[in-house]
Amino acid sequence: MKALLIHNDNLPDELIDNFSTTEKFDITQTKMMEKGFSFDKYAHEELAKWLKNKNYNVIFLPFSLSDNNYLELTGLRLGLHIRLTKEINHADTPIVFLGYETPEQITRLTYLGNFLFTSGVFCTDKFNNLSDLHKQYSWISSKWRPKNNKLSEEDYKEVISRIYVEPPANYTFHHSIANEWALIRWAEALEVKAEGIHKLNIELESSLYFKYLKAKHPISTNIAQNDYAILRRGRMLFVDDEIEKGWGEVFKKICDGFPASDLEFVGKEFKTKSNKEEVVEEVKDRIRAFNPDVIILDLRLHDQDFRLAISGMTGFKILQWVKGYYDNDNKKVVSGYNPGIQVVIVSASNKTWNLQALQEAGADGFINKESPENSVDDDFTTKSLKNICKTIDDCLFRKFLKDFQPLRKSTFSLASDTSSKLEIVFELLRKVRPENCVTNFRHAYLLLYQILENFVKSDKVYKTYDVKSEIKHKSVVVKLDNSEVEVYSPCDMIPGNIRTNITLKRDGRFFFQTSMSEKTITAATFNVDTFKKDGFNAKSQTKETPLFKIINVFKERYSYTEEECDQIIMATYLRSNLCGHVTGNIDPSKREISSDDILCLIEHISKTKD
Question: Which pTM does this prediction carry?
C-alpha cells in the first residue's frame, strides 16, 4: 500500500505500528505557547519534509492532531495545507480523514468543514485495524480514479471554488495581509525581482490564507510593456513605510525610463520613529528638499494609524500640509505648502467615506492596493497597474500647477478681484485631464488674460497720451515726425488678407497686430519711406486697444524685451482666436491652448503682484 498515515499517537497502536509509512505530527501545548509560534509555518515545514520528494497515492490522517483540544481539528487544517501547497507535489492526492464524526457534524464546528465535501476527500469511522484502511485504499485505487488516482485540473478548480479560508481576525495583521497581497501580485505581474519581495514570499509561503488566495486568484503575468507605460516625466516622491519590502522596486519598474534623479523614496526609517508626528516632519523635510511634482503617499505610515480615524492618520496630515485646510479649532484657513504639487494617495482601504474625505482634502488621485476581496476579477491586477499609470500620467500632466502656487499667494492691491479669479482658474486647472483639457484650458486662459487687462485699466497704472498721426493701409503708411517706426508683426502674413490694428505709444512708436499664423512672432524695424512705396487707400483711426495698453505698460514698468512683447501679442492672438472666438485663423486640431501657454501668461501676471 503506497500510502502515508499522519498521526499524533491518537490512533490505535496496532494501526500505527503496522502501517508501512507513518509520520508523527507532534504539536504540543508547550510548542504552541512558544513566542512567535505559527501553526501554519510548522505544518508547512513538516509536510515539506514528508511529501516533497515522495510519491503517495493516498494520505490518511485524523480530524484532530491536538494533544489537548480535539475541537481544534488541526488535522483538517493540515489536510487543507496538503491540498493548497502545490510545491510539495501532493495537492491532487486523495485524502482520507479518520474520525467517528460525520462530515456534517464537523461542518457545524468549523467553516473548514466544506473541504470534506470536495472531490478527492473521504471520511471513515472504520480505522481500528489496518485491514479497514486497506479496504479504503483499494476502493480509491480501483473505483475512484483507476487510471491515475489523482484530481484532474477541473476537480481542483471545483475544490478551490467550494472551500473557504478566513482572513486573520486581527485588523492590523489583516491590513498587512492585504498590503502584501498587492505587493506580491504586482511584483509577479511586472516580473520584478527584488530581495525584499523574495523574503516576503518566503515569509508568506506557509500561510494557509495566502495559499488559499493564490490558488483562488492565480496571478497573470501576461502584461505587455506598453500596458504600464507612463508617457510623461517629472519629479516623483514615493512615501511608504514598507518601501524596503519591495514597493520601491515595483514603482521603479512602473516608472521605467525616468532618470534616477527624478525618483525619490522615503519611508524605510519610519519604523524607528516613536510617534507619527516625527514621520510627518520627516516627510515635510524631504518634500522641501526634493521639490517633487507628484507625491505617491501611503495613507498609513505609522503603527498609531491603525487606531485612528482617517483625519488623524499620518498620510492625511501630510496631505493637509501640502494642500492646506480649514482649522476648525481656530476658525481659519491654513495655507498649504504648495497645493499645486500633485498628491496621489495609496491605500489598501476602499471604503467610500475614506475616499470622500481624501478627495475633500485635495487628493489628486487614488491608488487602491489590490486586496484579496477585489481580486475576484481575473483581470484586476492588469486593470490596477493600468490605473496606476493613468493616474500618475494625469498628475504629471498637471504638474505645471506647482508653478502656479506662488502667484496664488501674492496680493494684488490694484485689482481687488484678482485673487478670486486666480482661485477659479486653479480649480479649473486642477480638474483637467489630457483627454478633456480643452474647455478648461480655454476658460482659464480667458480669465488669466482678463487679469492682465484689468491691471492695465487702472488709472494708477496707465495714462493716455495725445499722439497725432495719420494711418493708411493696404500695406501701411504712417506719417510721424520720426523717420523710423517699430512694427510688431507676424513673420508670415497672408497677402490680400491683412487685417491690422495700429496702436501708438507716446514716444511716436507703435505696435501692429494682424492676422497671423501659428509661427513664432518676430519684431522688425521698418523705414517710413518703405511703407509709402506701396501706397494704401484705406484709412484707419488710431485707438488704444487693450493690447496696446498691456504692451505699453509692460515695456515701461517692467522693461520688456521684444521677445517678451511678442509673447503678449501671441497671448492676445490665442485669446481672440481660440478662446474668445473661433475665427478660423487657427486650426484647433493643430494648435490648442497648452499648459505652456498657461504658464507663460501666469509669468506675465506674476510681474504685476505687489
Answer: 0.76
